[in-house]
Amino acid sequence: MDGSATPDVREIRIxxxxxxxxxxxxxxxxxxxxxxxxxxxxQEVRLSPGVFADIRVMPGELPPYFVEVALGxxxxxxxxxxxxxxxxxxxxxxxxxxxxxxADRALVAGDPPLERELAGLLAPGLRVETWDEAHLAGxxxxxxxxxxxxxxxxQLLDLRQAIDRAKAAHAFGASVALDPLHSTLLWHFAYxxxxxxxxxxxVDPRDFLPPLRYSKVVVVMxxxxxxxxxxxxxxxxxxxxxxxxxxxxxxxxxFINDGGMLYQFVGDSVVxxxxxxxxxxxxxxxxxxxxxxLVDIGAAIAEQWQRQIDQAQPAAGVHVAMALGEVxxxxxxxxxxxxxxxxxxxxxxxxxxxxxxxxxxIVVSNLLYQxxxxxxxxxxxxLDPVEAKNIGRVKAWRLAG
Length: 401
Prior knowledge:
The protein has two domains: 9-205, no CATH class; 209-399, Alpha-Beta Plaits, CATH 3.30.70. The chain has 13 helices and 15 strands. It has helices at residues 9-32, 75-86, 105-108, 114-119, 133-144, 153-172, 180-188, 191-199, 227-232, 237-257, 283-306, 345-354, 366-371; strands spanning 39-48, 51-59, 65-69, 98-102, 127-131, 213-224, 261-266, 269-274, 318-331, 340-343, 362-365, 381-382, 386-388, 392-394, 396-399. The strands form three sheets. Strands 6, 7, 8, 9, 10, 11, 12 and 15 form an eight-stranded mixed beta sheet that branches. The chain has a five-stranded mixed beta sheet with strand order 1-2-3-4-5. A two-stranded antiparallel sheet has the order 13-14. The model has no long low-confidence stretch (mean pLDDT 95).
């Protein structure tokens, strides 16, 4: 594909990873009858120390598979990446059936064909499948009704609108026109969770996130380690922007598709909730799974960032904190449901606990620890009481990465 005003290939890859996550979920729903919430899709899945899969798709009872977005990479770098990631089985790849490589047409159709070259690099039981730009465009056309002609910024923005319209149709009904409130809800929640709310009888989008005091909410907060050092030692501003864009895109996807609510980004920090607008017995388990995923995303982002600068950084990854408590959700403008905010002691506690969480660690409040499933508690170590500013001495527990 060619076109004018083509954005940086690294930003295109971030966009395509998000697109492919949405595409795979919708196609498994339409072709295999798997409810969207029953397909687990995660980004930056740790395969071994320092080695991460771009995307892992686990569609219900079907075998899981991986997707690698290799657009813009050389043939040698793609082969080396596939060998390093999938040359042997690891716990994260057990049961997986295939690895999909999304690459440039010239790479896929080379001599020998890319599939043939990569097939000999995979662990037994894994097969390779390649998607070039034309194949990907066909999947996009079939799934979203959008004819992608090139990777120009204008085309990609139009494609995002088509994706959001498809999500809105699932969430709010096929006849609904996308408006600012719908877009806001789709930013904060997975479309399939919104569809579940509608199917449960909540038909007015203004009622999807009412201003209320919500109890037993799990607050999850993560921020990048040594962020100021990375920024200071990075001389190419594009590297900073693309690293933060990747962090935001992937952590948001992890929050909402683990069943949570993405609340906000503040600088290099991300905050999300589990238990809003409805709670379930699985909120704590889902929040912990999300927190573990955030650790892997942070480690992958830091590793990619470090590769693009000279100075060795003092830390890598993210600090994560979790707390359990009440959250007050309120409109930020009178009667608004599009602009909503939240206040909570649990958010303040998370910020304090985050300060004692090391790279790749998850620190949780005592109430959160007591709410964990019995099988999860032995992995945590009790900390000395934490002096939390404006809160007091608090009991906390640490899960090392």
